[in-house]
Amino acid sequence: MMEYFYKLLEQYSIDGEHAIISEGKGGANNTTRYIESMGHKYVIRVYETHKDIERVLVEHAILEKLNTCNKPLSFSVPQLIQAIDGQTALQFPDGSGRIAAMSKYLEGVNPNFNDPTSVFSFGQTTGLLMNTLNSIEINRPYVYKPYYEIEHTHPKCPPAYIAEWCSHPTMPFQDLSLQLQWIAEAISYFQHQVSWLRQLPHQIIHGDLNASNVLMDTNRSINAVLDFEFATNDLRVMEIAVCLSELMVEEENESAKWDKLNTYMNGLKTNIQLHQREIKALPILVQLRRLDVFIHFLGRYQEGVDEADVLRRQIVNAAAKRDWLKTGGPKLIALANKLNQ
């Protein structure tokens, strides 16, 4: 496969003959390679879950706006490298139809959010990014639908199919029938909440802020935000709900979890305040994020992208806090109200 990356470099004004290509840490949705050439570092990203260039160009339009906006940012975002023909999204030269893009390498490491400094900085960064994204417009139609349009989460997984699959799981998942029953009920309940959620403020959001999509420096401050693949026009508060959901999943200790959420929200309030209706929506949107991730991985499993064990982990994560709306939800609303004063 490495020869195709060298072939891709021929389409850029980069000395590919003397370039060093090494494997990078890819995510569930892409393959990454690092490039070193003539004292410069770059990152090549190959999209693995779709071949839709319009999705990529929406991401690139947002990145261009962020890199040229007048508002100062305390963090970097990927700066795309144009090919010789001026394009930023190219066909990967292996005949697969996959799309590749190159950007400048950004220094930093992924945080584990086990210390208050990085968590507070994550909150600050979320608020600043939200404010900046709210100030930009792009001239391309958004491809991804808002989170609350759960029927569009994955083309192979409409709600009726999910309900049937959860009611009659196949052999690798039959021991998780209770969790799947709860997931089906939670999705049905959520669909009855959409009408009032649609009325909340909308803007461009990143949509997937988590430890794998940010970098921190040696002072444990967030210094880069990566992977705007899923950026779209959505509920403003959904950006925060995604972050809270991710912080909760990664922390098993209940006391430490709420300390972490409090620290994040303290960082967030340095740059943004929420409307009362947005605070009310936070608990169900945190749960929506977990349901959305499950649907995404159910679709990947049906397409043969992932093995059963990957989906099993997502089922367990999605159903880990089945009483969240009754117990954790009111506590989260109280915390957000306190910090919003």
Tell me about this structure:
Helices cover 43% and strands 13% of the residues. It is an alpha+beta fold and 341 residues long. The chain has a five-stranded antiparallel sheet, with helices on one face. A two-stranded antiparallel ribbon has the order 6-9. The mean pLDDT is 94.
Outline of the structure:
The chain is 43% helix and 13% strand. The protein has helices spanning 2-9, 53-68, 116-133, 159-167, 177-191, 194-197, 238-249, 254-268, 276-302, 308-318, 328-339; strands at residues 20-23, 30-37, 40-47, 90-91, 99-104, 202-205, 214-216, 222-225, 232-235. It starts with a helix and ends with a helix.
Topology overview:
Blueprint: H1 2-9, E1 20-23, E2 30-37, E3 40-47, H2 53-68, E4 90-91, E5 99-104, H3 116-133, H4 159-167, H5 177-191, H6 194-197, E6 202-205, E7 214-216, E8 222-225, E9 232-235, H7 238-249, H8 254-268, H9 276-302, H10 308-318, H11 328-339
Antiparallel strand pairs: 1-2, 2-3, 3-5, 4-5, 6-9, 7-8
Helix pairs in contact: 3-8, 4-5, 7-9, 9-10, 9-11
- What integer is the average pLDDT? 94
Output the radius of gyration. Answer: 20 Å
Largest sheet, spatial ordering of strands? 1-2-3-5-4
Instruction: Report strand %.
Output: 5-15%
Low-confidence stretches: none
Q: What shape does the CA trace take?
A: globular
